Amino acid sequence: MKKTLSFLALALLSGNLLHAQNAADSAYVRDHYEKKEVTIPMRDGKKLFTVIYSPKDKSKKYPVLLNRTPYTVGPYGQHEYKKSLGNFPAMMRDGYIFVYQDVRGKWMSEGDFEDIRPTTLSKDKNAIDESTDTYDALEWLNKNLKNYNGKAGLYGISYPGFYSTVGLVKTHPSLKAVSPQAPVTDWFIGDDFHHNGVLFLQDAFTFMSTFGVPRPKPITPDQFKNNIQIKEVDKYNFFLHAGTAKELKNNYFGDSVRFWNDLFLHPNYDEFWKSRVITNHLQDVKPAVMVVGGFFDAEDAYGTFKTYQSIEEKSKNNNSILVAGPWYHGGWVRAEGDFLGDIQFDKKTSITYQEKFEQPFFKYYLKNEGSFNAAEANIFISGNNEWKQFEQWPPKDVETRKLYFQPQGRLGFEKVQHTDSWDEYITDPNKPVPHQGGLIQNRTREYMVDDQRFAANRPDVMVYQTEPLTEDLTIVGPIKNFLKVSSTGTDADYVVKLIDVYPEDAASYQGKPMAGYQMMVRGEIMAGKYRNGFDKPQPLSPGLVEQINFVMPDIAHTFKKGHRIMVQVQNSWFPLAERNPQVYMEPYSATKTDFRKATQRIFHDVNNATYIEFDVLKD
To answer: 326: which DSSP letter?
Structure first.
């Protein structure tokens, strides 16, 4: 009882301290900044609603920090102030002119909104895209701001991260430092709504049921009405009974949500999706760039690494760096970063990021203050729980290893020599494998590191694991999957999960047993129909051995001595991912009546080896 009371007292104390800190931050904004609301004209005449917070101290000039967002710049009203400015309170105390802008077609800005609007690179001087809107906003600020030193920074997390990346195209001369953080990059291959062609059903539906509802005219959030309400607590059951993307559209959206309509018009990786991939346009990037993201980001882990790598490949002379840590979506500025779910990192990684990276990055490039000597790649390695610096990412001083699936659920570094060896199991779309254990009220951020024992015990999940490791093994970079499979159906999805299995003598954490814990380090799904290209779906040939290859986003994790490496393979991940009917059909045409059971095989013999491939840091 004493422990319980102590814990409650600590929680109350923490809550009181947080409330006091929020109150102090809010007071700081009012005491030190003046707010101005303006509409900035774009080159086509549309006006974008913009809020400017300028320091009251006029004794010196300040740089601009611009955040362009579809999520509202509120609170609205000349005398209504944000509770804090920038990504975290220390930034506002550094002193900047903070500028927030509702992007075109959102909230109080004029024009039509378009999801991840294509970048046109048109020679027509009146043609618009998000890069021209960014340029025009910065040009207006350059001409109209007082006490402005002429240097601007651009930053944002998630969707605003996309708008940050867009600012690197046709860059305004004043833009000197840009930080895309967990940036939306490719909504078909790896971010948010699709992973390797599979619709992330729960995220897409939940997000678009509010975000995708059309705005009839410029409005503030308090004027917005959303008629789509989900009352069922158990989202596994809700999506199980609600059905497929088609049935959700018919029963909830009709034709009202543009994004859902686009799914049906563009089911494959056609020009609609390709034109929205901003990383295709990152040639000749001029500002300093710091790309930031989390290894355990449930929304945009893909975008972080793809954006950094694209700048490195297309703008070789650019000054770009990468910072990646053990964070959930935005966790580097929304938490202290010392744990995620049941997994401890022993250090306040987010505080380190804020103090060692984001603050000095903008102060150096926008204010000429201090120094910024970060490495090319600044990476926190979980498992070992330490920061490491590398000359490139993925690192070059590595050894490529392969882990082969073997009979009796074994996993080993030696290629199997058996013949005619496989595992066989039955999958039923009406009884899909859940993506997390227990009651699924919402898709949690913690599912990225959750204990996978709830799945390992199912007959439709194949489990392979090594013997206890005899030495530490640090895996860095992307994970490549090479599956040899067959199905009695004509289509199937494949989920691969890389898992760190704790030993039986692992210490408990806050009373929770960690013995045998199966920590997911990375999981990803691949649509079998796209095995030969995302623009050309093809059915599986029933009973024929097929090669399914795909890459999972980067990791940086040490599997400690005494731990095991596990790989789980399954064919559903629900309701995270839409169910495959296991019958080849036009995407998004299926209804629940189309679902069929199928017998799956995973091969692991000398002629049909299934394995994963990764890089290991050398000692």
So the answer is: S
